[in-house]
Amino acid sequence: MKAVPPVDENLPDTSNVREWTYRDIARLPPAEQKEWKAACREELEALRRRKVFELVDRPKGRKVIKNRWVFDIKSNGRKKARLVAKGFSQVEGVDYDQIFSPVVRFETVRFLLALSALEDWYITGLDVRNAYLYGKLDEEIYMEQPEGFAAKGQEHKVLRLLRALYGLKQAGLAWWRTLNESMKELGFKRLVSDAGIFVFRDKDGGMVIVIVYVDDALFCGRNKALVNKMKAKFMEKWECRDLGEVKEFLRMRIQRKGRMIRIDQCAYLEKVLLRCGMQNAKPAPTPLPAGYHPEPNNKPVDPILRSRFQTVIGSLLYIMLGTRPDIAFAVTKLSQFAANPSQEHLTKALYICRYLLGTRSYSLVYDGASGLGLCACTDSDWGSDPFTRRSQTGYFLKLAGGIFSWQSRAQKTVAHSTTEAEYMAISDCSRQVVWIRNLMSEIGYELAPIPIAGDSQGSLFMSSNPVTESRSKHIDIRYHAIREYIENKQVEVFFVDGSDNPADLFTKNLGHVKFTKFRGQLGLEFYDSA
């Protein structure tokens, strides 16, 4: 029998390196200390090369923000240290003003991947190293010297930040402004429909589309040589890591075979199942048990239970928003109780994990060879919430045989009839369709009216005919926009039988047979990567 080595309680927890402070480094063996301090020096040298700060006397009457070291071990074993400003100590109006930074929408990324499959575009990726350090600051910000690396003999001095640093509230906006100006210089035009998309056109009609999410970027287009040329110009301006043909983006694994593109979040899903302790649970056939309706919790808030529930439901939301539309209804329904969840709510959130465990190898598939164009489906479940009596709206948009945009949410007002609930749902769907239509128009595509399918004859009649009846005259004017869209031939509506409407999956908790039938129409397929 082998002896179990004693655990040194003075050593920091190696299972959670990101929680370490610089003082934890001092508790490590000398050899490891040397490696981590080398990583810190490497980070400081990178900041000096970019001229991120300058050493100055401490200003009188000005708040000096603090900082901390954040440590991590990369997948290749490399030790990484990053100096992060404690942005929560910044003073609004003095240290920062605007902080909003645009990023590309998830659905836009999926749409362009589907379009790439349909048009057989070449896609390649890169990430910008230390992107925030390129952002220039307009404000005068002072920061203390980093722990363990104060300049000898000048410990009383502070750093004046000249460029954005990770942790600053305005760091994302400063980087985006710098990026936007750079893309203009390269000849790219930012789209109005999505500020994270840039388009370049040359004199011969060639086009390159760039998708940007903070420091990650995808370059795509039909002409591979032109795409690589513009990518090379971009990399001349920034220090980048060339990722080659895209394999991953926003934690979505992207697999391509000819004109077929598959996306999934299997790796992230495995981490979620492990974190929730569900990796060995019994798989469930549907996201929620058939007929289950969650009820509000009227008991006092349990902080520990709430924290656990929010951790689980937050992880499930990210998976749902990324590549798993089949859990949209279940996740959005349970997330309504995140402020004061009950044990029953947590149990059902873990039930969704059991469903994902059994379908962990599913991926969204966009098949360019199918030639299938843009279409939408919509549905509602009238008065489905027994407590608020609000209806549930559900819709999705589909291209190249796979859905790229979906929605499942409670309606904002109580509907007086099934027709009214369906009318509000189809109106919400039409706005999303018109947005995608505008996006495609900016890229250079002119489309015929985009079909929207619904299963309510009454709502379809109201959409196509500007009638005012006693049962519908009270409907909010915002929902009547669909009539203008139809009149302008931007969309057209069609009837589909309720038993064949896959949008039903986004409005109610379906039984196994019907759920499986509609799931197969979303473009979700089992994929054995082995």
Automatic annotation (TrEMBL):
SUPFAM superfamilies: DNA/RNA polymerases. It comes from the Eukaryota. Residues 51-288 form the Reverse transcriptase Ty1/copia-type domain. InterPro entries: DNA/RNA_pol_sf, RVT_2. Pfam families: RVT_2. PANTHER family: GAG-POL-RELATED RETROTRANSPOSON (PTHR11439), PEPTIDE SYNTHASE GLIP-LIKE, PUTATIVE (AFU_ORTHOLOGUE AFUA_3G12920)-RELATED (PTHR11439:SF483). This is Reverse transcriptase Ty1/copia-type domain-containing protein. It comes from Trametes cubensis. The lineage of its organism: Eukaryota, Fungi, Dikarya, Basidiomycota, Agaricomycotina.
